[in-house]
C-alpha cells in the first residue's frame, strides 16, 4: 500500500469540544449583554481565540480596551478548561476511532492540525495521543486558517508533500486552508456549509474504508 499523510482538525472533527467553546463564549457574551446564539457560534469555527472575541464584540457593537480584551481571553480559556477536566474517550465522535485504527494498521502517517492551544491535553484525556505522529496546534503557528500554515507544517513533519496530504475539517476556514495548501480537503459536516471541500461526509460513520483505500492508492 502507498503512503499518504492524513491530517485531522480537532474540534468538531475528532471531538465535539465546540459545545464547550460555545458555553464559555456565551458566558462572557452574557456578561457584556451580547446576544450570542448557536448560529453566531458557527462564525467562530476554525478561528483563533483573539479573532473569536473580536467577532463577538462586533456582534454586540462593544468597544473595548486591549486590557479588557486580554482579561476576557484569559477568562474564556479558564472557563473552557473547566469543561475539559472530565473528558474521556466517550467524547470522541462516532466513526473516528475506526478510521484512526485503519490508518495506523496500514502505516499511514497521521497528524493533528488544530488552532486549539489545548490540543495535547485533549488527545491525552481521550486516550488517543499515541495515534498521532505529529501534533501541530495553536502554540506552533502564527497564522490562523484559512492560511494553510498549520497543515503545511504538519505535512512537513510527516515528511510528505502537500499534494499527498489529506485533511479532515469541519470549518469553512479549515477547508479553504487545505485547498490553498494544495491538499485534498474532506469536509465533515453539512454540504451547504462545506461545499468548497473536495469530498463531504456528514460524519465519519459515512466514510467507507474502501474510500480511504482509494485515497491512499490515488496518484
Q: What can you see in these coordinates?
A:
This protein is an alpha/beta fold and 219 residues long. It is globular and about 55 Å long. The mean pLDDT is 95. The relative contact order is 0.18. Strand 2, helix 6 (119-125) and strand 3 form a beta-alpha-beta unit. Helices cover 42% and strands 11% of the residues. It has nine helices and six strands; from the N terminus they run βαααααβαβαβαββα. It has a six-stranded parallel β-sheet with strand order 3-2-1-4-5-6. It has helices at 18-31, 38-41, 49-59, 66-84, 96-105, 119-125, 149-157, 172-180, 209-217; strands spanning 5-8, 110-113, 134-136, 165-169, 184-188, 199-201. The protein folds into two domains: 5-16 and 89-217, HAD superfamily/HAD-like (Rossmann fold, 3-Layer(aba) Sandwich); 18-84, Putative phosphatase, domain 2 (DNA polymerase, domain 1), CATH 1.10.150. Helix 1 (18-31) packs across helix 4 (66-84).
Q: Which secondary structure elements does this structure contain, and how are they paired or packed?
A:
Layout: E1 5-8, H1 18-31, H2 38-41, H3 49-59, H4 66-84, H5 96-105, E2 110-113, H6 119-125, E3 134-136, H7 149-157, E4 165-169, H8 172-180, E5 184-188, E6 199-201, H9 209-217
Parallel strand pairs: 1-2, 1-4, 2-3, 4-5, 5-6
In short:
This protein is α/β, with parallel strands linked by helices and about 220 residues long. It has 9 helices and 6 strands; from the N terminus they run βαααααβαβαβαββα. Helix content is about 40%, strand content about 10%.
Amino acid at each position: 500500500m502507498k503512503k499518504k499523510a492524513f491530517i485531522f482538525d480537532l474540534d468538531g472533527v475528532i471531538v465535539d469540544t465546540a459545545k464547550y467553546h460555545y458555553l464559555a463564549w456565551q458566558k462572557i457574551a452574557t456578561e457584556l449583554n451580547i446576544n450570542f446564539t448557536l448560529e453566531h457560534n458557527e462564525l467562530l469555527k476554525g478561528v483563533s481565540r483573539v479573532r473569536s472575541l473580536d467577532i463577538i464584540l462586533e456582534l454586540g457593537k462593544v468597544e473595548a480596551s486591549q486590557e479588557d480584551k486580554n482579561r476576557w481571553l484569559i477568562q474564556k480559556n479558564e472557563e473552557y478548561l473547566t469543561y475539559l477536566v472530565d473528558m474521556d474517550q466517550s467524547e470522541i465522535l462516532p466513526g473516528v476511532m475506526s478510521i484512526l485504527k485503519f490508518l495506523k494498521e496500514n502505516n499511514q502517517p497521521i497528524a493533528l492540525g488544530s488552532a486549539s492551544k489545548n490540543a495535547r491535553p485533549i488527545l491525552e484525556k481521550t486516550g488517543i495521543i499515541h495515534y498521532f505522529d505529529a501534533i501541530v496546534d495553536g502554540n506552533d503557528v502564527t497564522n490562523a486558517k484559512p492560511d494553510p500554515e498549520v497543515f503545511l507544517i504538519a505535512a512537513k513533519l510527516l515528511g510528505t508533500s502537500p499534494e499527498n496530504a489529506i485533511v479532515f475539517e469541519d470549518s469553512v476556514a479549515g477547508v479553504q486552508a487545505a485547498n490553498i495548501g494544495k491538499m485534498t480537503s474532506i469536509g465533515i459536516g453539512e454540504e451547504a456549509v462545506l461545499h468548497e471541500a473536495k469530498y463531504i461526509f456528514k460524519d465519519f460513520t459515512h466514510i467507507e474504508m474502501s474510500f480511504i483505500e482509494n485515497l491512499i492508492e490515488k496518484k
